[in-house]
Write a structure and sequence with these properties.
Elements (H helix, E strand, L loop, with lengths): L1 H5 L4 H6 L2 H10 L4 E2 L8 H10 L6 H12 L1 H8 L5 E4 L7 H8 L3 E6 L2 H14 L4 E2 L2 E2 L16 E4 L9 H15 L4 E7 L4 H7 L6 H16 L9 E8 L4 E8 L3 E5 L2 E5 L4 E8 L3 H10 L3 E7 L5 E7 L1
Parallel strand pairs: 1-12, 2-3, 2-6, 3-4, 3-5, 6-7
Antiparallel strand pairs: 7-14, 8-9, 9-12, 10-11, 13-14
Bound molecules: N,N-dimethyl-L-histidine (AVI).
Protein name: Dimethylhistidine N-methyltransferase
Keywords: Methyltransferase, Transferase
InterPro entries: EgtD, EgtD_Methyltrsf_superfamily, MeTrfase_dom, MeTrfase_EgtD-like, SAM-dependent_MTases_sf
Length: about 325
């Protein structure tokens, strides 16, 4: 546009300076190519993730919802009634009403990086619950955030095993920073996916309908769209593998043949079979989850699991 032109900038200079551009160029320049999972969630990616949560193979969402329902009374007793609830990464906020009811919450503070997505979800919630005070905060919950003034103690909500998408050191940093944000006497209600049979895990991340594959491949579409990329997407396929020694599912995009392409004018070549590592999803035994709590300054107060030991719902105290 005119303004860019006057400032001596072109559309691609602007793109070059975005976090996404920096992460992609840096990640594709490494010997082992990698792009952080947070970049999955453009509009299409967020829609595809919503679809994933409804897949028969993807057990975490419905299992966690079942746990929130089954333990509503205990949650109220342990986390406290009438306390402001702060949700980290609210997204579409489908589980939120369950916690709000369990805790008889009157003030709800959703934090989400996508302002638009957040606004849409909140309009729905506001219509359903006219008495609820909603104070949305558009921002990145992995960065230090200033909360509006609230009468504590506060309850943090971090469902969906999003913590699993962080490596152990970052998970500890993040949970510690939640403690600082929430302050004294806080509680954290957190969902953490459990270790289990490798087959079950790999199927959950490689469903028969191919939705997870599409979610993974959408990252390449996003690069082509937003970063002037020339990636031949057909060459790539989705792969999900359980790494037992690290305790995580890894998602990769595998090149089916030698391929070369450019992103923002920079040239990249990949060999047949070489991958771009796009996501880690760490799984924790109940004991490991409690160690994680203690390592990040929280005291584990309670946890529940489902009859098939699939998922853990935890309450921690500051
Ligand atoms: C958002 N996050 C907790 C999901 C997970 O299970 O790690 C993302 C996801 N990736 C593939 N399927 C779901």
């Amino acid at each position: 546009s005119e303004t860019w032109h006057e400032a001596g900038m072109t559309a691609s200079t602007v793109a070059l300076e975005s976090d996404f551009a920096k992460a992609v160029l840096a990640g594709l320049s490494q010997t082992r190519k990698v792009i952080p999972a947070r970049y999955f969630y453009d509009m299409r990616g967020s829609e595809l993730f919503e679809e994933i949560t409804e897949l028969p193979e993807y057990y975490p969402t419905r299992t966690e919802i079942g746990l929130l329902r089954a333990h509503a009374d205990d949650l109220g007793r342990l986390a406290g009634h009438n306390r402001p609830v702060i949700e980290f990464g609210a997204g579409s906020a489908t589980k939120t009403p369950l916690l709000l009811d369990a805790l008889r919450t009157t003030t709800y503070v959703p934090i989400d990086i996508s302002g638009d997505f957040l606004e849409e979800a909140m309009a729905g919630l506001a219509a359903e619950r006219p008495a609820l005070r909603i104070v949305p905060v558009a921002g990145d919950f992995t960065q230090a955030l200033e909360l509006p003034h609230l009468d504590g103690p506060l309850v943090g909500f971090f469902p969906g095993s999003t913590i699993g998408n962080f490596d152990h050191a970052s998970a500890v940093d993040l949970l510690r920073s939640f403690g600082q944000t929430l302050g004294e006497g806080a509680r954290l209600v957190i969902g953490i996916d459990r270790k289990k049979d490798a087959r079950l895990l790999e199927t959950a991340y490689d469903d028969a309908a191919g939705v997870t594959a599409e979610f993974n491949l959408n990252l390449l579409h996003r690069i082509n769209r937003e970063l002037d990329g020339t990636i031949p997407i057909d060459v790539f396929s989705h792969c999900a593998v359980w790494q037992d020694s690290i305790g995580r599912i890894e998602m990769h995009l595998v090149a089916g043949r030698e391929v070369s392409f450019s992103v923002l004018g920079q040239r990249f070549t990949m060999n047949a079979g070489e991958t771009i590592h796009t996501e880690n999803s760490h799984k924790y035994s109940l004991e490991e989850a409690r160690l994680l709590a203690r390592a990040s300054g929280w005291e584990p107060l309670a946890f529940w699991t489902d009859p098939d030991d699939l998922f853990g719902l935890h309450v921690w105290g500051a």
